[in-house]
Amino acid sequence: MNQTYDAIIIGAGIMGCSIAYELSKKGWKTLTIDKLAASGHGSTANTCAVIRVHYSTIDGTAAAYESYKYWENWAEYIGVQDPLGLAKLIKRGVMVMKSTANDQLKKIKRMMKELDIAYEDLTFDMVKEKCSMLDDTSYHPPRRPDDPEFGTPNERPLQGAIYYEEGGYISDPVLSVHNVQIAAESHGAQFKFNAAVMDIIKNGNRVSGVTLEDGTIIYARVVVNAAGPHSFVINRMAGIEKTMKIKTRALRHEVAHLPAPEGVDYESTGCPSSDSDIGAYWRPEVGNHILTGSEDPECDPKEWVDNPDEFNRNLTEQARVQALRLAQRIPAMPVPSRIQGVVDLYDVSDDWIPIYDKSDLPGFYMAVGTSGNQYKNAPVVGKMMAHLIEQCENGRDHDNDPVIFHLEKTGHDLNMKFYSRLREINQESSFSVLG
Ligand SMILES: Cc1cc2nc3c(=O)[nH]c(=O)nc-3n(C[C@H](O)[C@H](O)[C@H](O)COP(=O)(O)OP(=O)(O)OC[C@H]3O[C@@H](n4cnc5c(N)ncnc54)[C@H](O)[C@@H]3O)c2cc1C
Fold this sequence. Notes:
Layout (H helix, E strand, L loop, with lengths): L2 E8 L3 H12 L4 E4 L16 E2 L6 H15 L1 H5 L10 E3 L2 E4 L8 H9 L5 E3 L1 H7 L30 E4 L3 E3 L2 H13 L4 E3 L4 E7 L2 E7 L4 E9 L5 H8 L9 E12 L6 H4 L3 E3 L4 E6 L3 E6 L9 E2 L11 H13 L10 E10 L5 E3 L6 E5 L9 H16 L10 E3 L6 E3 L20
Parallel strand pairs: 1-2, 1-12, 2-9, 5-14, 12-20
Antiparallel strand pairs: 3-8, 4-8, 5-7, 6-7, 10-11, 11-12, 13-16, 13-17, 13-18, 14-15, 15-16, 19-20, 21-22
Flavin-adenine dinucleotide binds next to helix 1, strand 13 and strand 18.
């Protein structure tokens, strides 16, 4: 039986659910389709869910700061009861080390001031008052342990850090996606699971729906690609990849879970931290663990994945590399012989800044290229995408007359050409998970 919707959203991760929520609030009849059995079971399931507001661009910072306000008032944003309960922001603030790699945070501090985001400027003695297990030795540039110079200290120790209160991490990212699904359903949004999209169908020069693996055809005047690390597969189905200046690819990443040093209650007192000097970020995890990922230093080989359905989900030597790097900053941290953790894919754009845009196929939109750093931005992305779709469907030529999105909680106006598929590579980017 043929079915018809206003919009089909491919992917029920944090992005697809947020877009479904905002479109359904505007009265659109949406269907979100996922090939997995439930929402949030794609790459969002393994996110570290760090909610930070510092980015390498002013627009990136503004979007993250606005999104923070939604995480902070999650119950209000969701607006309905979820029988499974609500995800929680563990508000611990965020610490960012000053280093040669980030020019002692001069640019980041300037942007935070411009956007009125409060932060404390800390000397390393002040850093130690907040987190006594940290050591100030500088090892820049980050290296791999098989480099003979790994662990060789620089003469000048770290100069300190910034700390800001408005940040933390989300207790349970899968639950957060479920919350958004329930919120969307309360506005009439529909979801279909265990259903893989195999083709994008067109009528003349416009998108008209999708074909599922079992042959079912579902019609809609709008189709949104929110397929995470499968984004490039869907763009190829739609035949639009070649028309994009900025493209996306799947990149494999490992996150190591390590025990906190003995006697340190890191789980209750620690905060998410970023340290370009050793190329690592980390945050507290249940079981008094420290979870740590790579900030993509040049010495780490990039594991691009051609088939996002088939990649090695086991930890490799990379997890040990990350553990040993972190042990430079936290010398008392034990490094177990068998490291635990998770492996998943980032959906990386050419400049590590996402693509939230229309496409050259009328009616086909994308929220892709989230580059390992956009979970936190989902509430704003849902709103921006719904606004963009509405504007374009009402005839706006977004490529030549870009949509401006007003960030209502923090006041900044975001020019959405920042996220265009037709932009030049943004040289302001960190070209890493830092965005
Ligand atoms: C290890 C790791 C750590 C991270 N840490 C952070 C962090 O600390 N902070 C932060 O902000 N961000 C972080 N991120 C990034 C963040 O998690 C992602 O940007 C975000 O979760 C992407 O959400 P999504 O909805 O786009 O993708 P996904 O959650 O992957 O959802 C896409 C969905 O599309 C479905 N799909 C794909 N193809 C099809 C098809 N053909 N038919 C039907 N369904 C399909 C998939 O099954 C999947 O469920 C991290 C990511 C990873 C992998």
